[in-house]
TrEMBL record:
It comes from the Bacteria. GO terms for molecular function: hydrolase activity. Gene3D superfamilies: Hypothetical protein af1432. The keyword Ribosomal protein does not apply. InterPro entries: HD/PDEase_dom (IPR003607), HD_domain (IPR006674). Keywords: Hydrolase. Residues 24-229 form the HD/PDEase domain. Pfam families: HD. This is Phosphohydrolase. Residues 84-94 have a biased composition (Polar residues).
Length: 271
């Protein structure tokens, strides 16, 4: 480790330090808070799946099936069902087994290890800090906020370099560099003639991948909005079948967050 891991308070200070205006801060920081929230929900779901796999008898059914997720939302009469998602249950063959709650996300596959939920939080809160550097109108010129279409693809790399200059550890700065799209490879950069140094800009670990995935459910458009799985699938299709397939694999791997509830909480539109 060559740098420091910022606290939540220090992250807010970093946002204020780089934000050119209060309007820009509100847009970008709120987006980062939303993405961090979604990412933490996904990480908790992953950890619950991992914990259950490690404590269940070998012949126990897989957790996270469509049937169980449907049951978790209640039966046809509207009564909540007693399922692993909202209760602590035990099995006759394993009476000490407890199921942790995983509100907010359904589905997903069992991960190979436990995820660091605090790292996911920190990464989510900082992943888009580079977008302050790619505004065309940043709130200081009297014009509505607007990003530069040509420069926007650089926001991850710009955020990564800026955080390193601030002394933030490489492991945290990488959340900026490696979250664009569903993972930009060197081949993607060359094939699409993107204005980036030819290299791989893909997650280096599960925590970075979770933040990258969570980021796809919210847009900093003006006004900002939430996206469903289907909405982002349509976006991914524009970049080819391989890009769409990567996205669908992430959906299967990490499950589906409860985006409508978040959209209602933040009073933002949902597409």
């Amino acid at each position: 480790m060559s740098g420091y891991i910022p606290t939540v308070q220090q992250i807010d200070e970093l946002h204020h330090k780089l934000a050119p205006s209060e309007e820009a801060y509100e847009l970008v920081h709120t987006h980062c808070v939303i993405v961090a929230t979604i990412a933490q929900q996904i990480a908790r779901r992953q950890n619950a799946l991992f914990t259950r796999r490690c404590t269940l008898p070998k012949d126990a059914p897989e957790w996270g099936t469509a049937a169980e997720d449907q049951g978790a939302r209640g039966d046809s009469e509207g009564a909540p069902a007693a399922t692993p998602h909202n209760t602590a249950t035990s099995s006759p063959s394993h009476p000490n087994y407890l199921v942790p709650p995983t509100a907010g996300v359904t589905g997903g596959h069992v991960p190979p290890r436990l995820l660091d939920e605090h790292l996911v939080l920190i990464g989510g809160l900082l992943h888009d800090i580079g977008t302050y550097k790619v505004f065309k109108h940043d709130g200081t010129d009297g014009e509505p906020l607007k990003f530069s279409g040509k420069k926007y693809i650089l926001h991850g790399l710009k955020g990564y370099k800026w955080l390193l200059k601030q002394g933030v550890d490489e492991s945290i700065a990488q959340f900026c560099r490696n979250h664009t799209g569903v993972g930009l490879t060197r081949e993607d950069v060359l094939r699409q003639d993107l204005p980036l140094p030819p290299d791989d800009y893909v997650p280096m670990n599960l925590e970075q991948e979770v933040v990258m995935y969570a980021d796809k459910f919210h847009s900093k458009s003006v006004p900002p909005k939430f996206l469903t799985v289907d909405a982002y699938t349509a976006r991914a299709q524009r970049f080819g079948a391989e890009n769409e397939q990567r996205w669908l694999e992430l959906v299967a791997k990490y499950g589906v967050p409860d985006i409508p509830t978040l959209a209602e909480k933040y009073q933002m539109r949902l597409i």
